[in-house]
Amino acid sequence: MNINDEDDIAVVFRKTLGHYTVRARGRELDCVLSSLIHKQLIFPTADPTSLRRTVREVREIDHVDPVAIGDRVRYVEAGDGRGMIVEVLPRHTKLSRPAPVPGQRVFEQVIVSNADLVLPVFSLANPTPRWGLLDRYLVSAEAADLPSLIVINKLDLAWKNPGFDEEIEIYRRVGYPVLLVSAITGEGVEELKRALQGRQSVLVGKSGVGKTSLLNAIQPGLGLRVKAVGAGEIGKGRHTTTHLEMFALDFGGALVDTPGMREFGLWDVAGEDLAYLFPEMADHVGQCKFGLSCRHDQEPGCAIRKAVMAGTISPYRYQSYMRLREEL
Ligand code: GDP
Ligand code: ZN
After folding, report:
1. Residue 50: pLDDT over 50
2. More confident position, 15 or 182
3. Cβ(74) to ligand 1 under 6 A?
4. 191 and 278 within one domain
5. Domain-embedded: residue 119
6. Are residues 149 and 196 in the same domain?
7. Which atom of ligand 1 is nearest to the CA of 121?
8. Long-range contacts for 185-188 (Cβ within 8 Å, ≥24 apart)?
9. 264: confidence class by pLDDT, cuts 50, 70, 90
């Protein structure tokens, strides 16, 4: 095997239990993992008292799956459209989540690697945005060092949500770009395409906001294909991603939807670092009376609370900070 040959590099774009579909030189290959990589699957034996359960869980446990969607891998061909992944190349970004295993330590589960952009998708109305959830997505993207583009769909329903302009302004002031779109009228769809073009984007957001309709508006049939990928499965299992797929965009770029995914990236975030992941708070960190040991809660002389009082930090964003802080 010649693993120095650049031609043997492929991108993982589909994952089902134990199988990885990679794209290389315009072709698709159905790959398994080399035992060299597979060995890492063995160490977290789930329940030593039950052999059958152990074997099943080891197969299902994706948090120790060394391969993620978006990974660039080296492979060897086995003929017949099949191959074997022999090496995962270093990731330039990764979106991970903590995968706790009962009775064990918490593992890192990389969901998507090498992404360039996170798109939290919400709707202006039906349902109205849950800003706390948006904050969670934004923090996760910040933790992964990825830029976010907030997408708000159902712009045609603006009349149903009179408070919206004021609320979204909070995010614009922080510096997040916001795109208002309507899958129904097509407004904003061209801008969305331009934002996606040439990038590997990750969509986050709950069902019902119009992701399927929006993807269909971007590229005929795309929404339906994305929806067919075991919609919601990623969020159901505590620590399994049974099926995930990245779709090529016909105008260039690729896109992964993560249905039901509540969080990424709060993996490896220490409580005292959380304020850095709120861009409007970052500058105040270290300015508190208790310096870096301030939790920005009830401490006297807290620079962040002062900024909330002064109106330069939104109380809603501060609430989100406190809520996330509780979890860390
Ligand atoms: P998903 O669950 O996020 O994939 O959302 P769907 O695309 O299935 O849409 C959910 C509901 O919202 C459906 O009834 C759609 O017709 C509706 N919908 C989607 N986009 C829009 C939009 O831009 N405007 C309005 N008014 N309704 C929309
Ligand atoms: Zn403070």
Report:
1. no
2. 182
3. no
4. no
5. yes
6. yes
7. 3
8. 185/155, 185/156, 186/217, 187/155, 187/156, 188/155
9. low
